[in-house]
Write a structure and sequence with these properties.
By secondary structure, the chain is mainly alpha-helical. The protein has one domain (44-485): Alpha Horseshoe (Serine Threonine Protein Phosphatase 5, Tetratricopeptide repeat). The protein is 42% helix and 5% strand. The chain is built from 17 helices and 6 strands. It has helices spanning 2-20, 24-27, 44-58, 67-74, 90-93, 102-125, 132-157, 193-210, 220-223, 227-240, 244-251, 314-318, 379-394, 399-412, 426-440, 447-453, 480-485, and strands at residues 79-81, 296-300, 328-330, 351-354, 357-360, 374-378. Helix 13 packs antiparallel against helix 14, helix 13 (379-394) packs antiparallel against helix 15 (426-440) and helix 14 runs parallel beside helix 15 (426-440).
């Protein structure tokens, strides 16, 4: 019976072809509610949606929507674990990761998903009929986000740039779009650390040359890549490479020689007058903070309908109940114990005591009506990147570096003034700049990056052991799932 019905169907299809001219469009209709690849980049509106999709991948809660910054901070000495919850970074905090740990696998997958989105867009733009200048702007955004993603991976899974003997332990450079399930396309060996950094800088240089000077003002100047965002990110990358002259060259493009410090071209970035408006207190839905103000160079935005997901956002980890889960509280022996961080410093207001423990409340809303944004880079970081580079490059108590340090400190603590005469030597000034970084960017995901780029040891905290640069846990393991599907990749030593 089934054979008879099948033969009837074949005859019916043949008749249809004869009567209808056997048009392929009749046999394979295109769904009117879907875009086929040939049309996905045919109009400005469609290209815009494709580019927005890259941002959506980057701001995954498992990636730059929250967890990347958390992992980089809880590896350091500023936070103690409060809940022993294996789902919320416990093994990152206590340095017991293995190749099967969820955060290792999920972070890797989210990062490469974002990179592939960028690569798919770059491939589609090659045949798009749009104006070349507009296409290059979109290419600049895609390459900026690809660079940011590769850099983020490298800071956790790759050896630091200074470790030349282990240069081979970088991450996988993925520069081609994977649009099918061909297993062979996934077999890509690790690139050297130096090769990954070279590609990151090539992407950022292209982005700088092709991105818009600004995105028309408003939130778009903080939530979409622009020229100054590429420059700012390069200062961070060159600092990781210890190429201090290049940090200075890049920073000088957006930081004037003397105070007041404000970018003269592109978006007019400058410090907010009050740190409280960078990370506003718990507010009603009628009030919006300046997550996208003049200091914000690039940030991950969220709305009440678009959240990083449960147990992903910074507010979830750092806020005590009822605004968060309070997984981590501030270590009394960490930067909060620094005598030079005065009680009158406005940044102390973010440190809230609950039940005898001090929690960080830079992200107080945690998915409320006005969800907290996840800051990627602020102008204050560029100022301190430049200050540190000036001192290291010149090996002197550099007067401009002192001015930059004062600009960040005095915004929150007008009672403290650093002077050239107040530092015995260049190292004393560097030490103070590093202290300022720990205060200013507490909870913003820079601590692990700073420890590793300087070849420092992750100090012991509570039951978590110290981890030296030679320790296995100094870098993350390559996920087992990746090694099972990508036979060309090598595991980090010790795992």
């Amino acid at each position: 019976m089934k054979k008879i019905m099948k033969n009837k169907l074949i005859i019916l299809m043949a008749v249809t072809c004869i009567l209808g001219g056997c048009k392929k469009s009749l046999l394979e209709p295109v769904p009117q509610t879907q875009l086929i690849p040939d049309n996905a980049f045919a109009t400005p509106e469609r290209v815009e949606q494709q580019v927005r999709g890259i941002y959506g991948g980057v701001k995954s809660g498992q990636f730059l929507g929250g967890r990347y910054f958390i992992y980089n901070d809880i590896r350091g000495e500023e936070f103690l674990n409060n809940t022993s919850n294996g789902v919320t970074g416990l093994q990152t905090w206590n340095f017991t990761l293995n190749e099967n740990t969820n955060e290792v696998t999920n972070f890797w997958n989210a990062a490469y998903n974002a990179i592939n989105r960028a690569n798919v867009v770059l491939l589609g733009l090659e045949t798009s009929p749009l104006d070349v200048a507009l296409l290059n702007k979109y290419r600049g955004e895609a390459r900026f986000l690809r660079a940011l993603s590769h850099y983020s991976l490298l800071t956790l899974f790759g050896r630091p740039a200074w470790d030349v003997p282990n240069d081979k332990y970088g991450v996988v450079l993925r520069l081609n779009a994977e649009t099918n399930s061909d297993p062979a396309a996934n077999v890509v060996p690790r690139s050297k650390v130096s090769e990954v950094y070279a590609q990151i800088l090539a992407d950022l240089n292209f982005a700088e040359a092709n991105l818009a000077l600004n995105n028309g003002g408003g939130p778009a100047n903080a939530t979409r890549a622009h020229r100054n965002a590429a420059i700012a990110l390069k200062t961070r990358v060159y600092l990781s490479l210890r190429q201090y002259a290049n940090v200075i060259t890049e920073a000088n493009k957006i930081v004037p020689a003397t105070a007041p410090f404000q970018a003269a071209t592109g978006v007019a970035h400058r410090l907010e007058a009050n740190i409280a408006t960078v990370f506003p207190p718990l507010v009603s839905p009628a009030v919006q903070g300046t997550y996208t103000g003049t200091e914000s160079i690039f940030t991950m935005p969220f709305t009440s309908l678009d959240l990083p997901g449960t147990q992903n956002g910074q507010g979830s980890y750092y806020n005590p109940s009822p605004n968060g889960l309070g997984d981590y509280y501030l270590n009394p022996a960490g930067i909060t114990a620094n005598a030079g961080w005065k009680t009158t410093d406005a940044r102390r207001a973010f440190n809230v005591v609950t039940s005898g423990k001090t929690y960080l409340r830079k992200w107080p809303n945690n998915g409320g009506s006005i969800p907290d944004y996840a800051p990627v880079i602020r102008y204050s970081e560029v100022l301190l990147n430049l200050a540190e580079a000036l001192v290291r490059q010149n090996n002197t108590v550099d007067a401009r570096a002192v001015d930059l340090l004062n600009a960040v400190r005095q915004r929150s603590d007008a009672t403290t003034t650093f002077t050239v005469a107040g530092f015995a030597d260049a190292q004393a000034l560097i030490d103070q700049i590093l202290i300022e970084r720990r205060i200013e960017f507490l909870g913003e995901g820079l601590r692990s990056i700073d420890v590793m780029r300087l070849g420092g040891t992750f100090v012991a905290k509570d039951i978590a052991p110290a981890v030296a640069p030679t320790g296995t846990q100094y870098v993350w393991p390559i996920p087992l799932r990746e090694r099972q599907t990508n036979t060309g990749i090598e595991q980090n030593p010790g795992y």
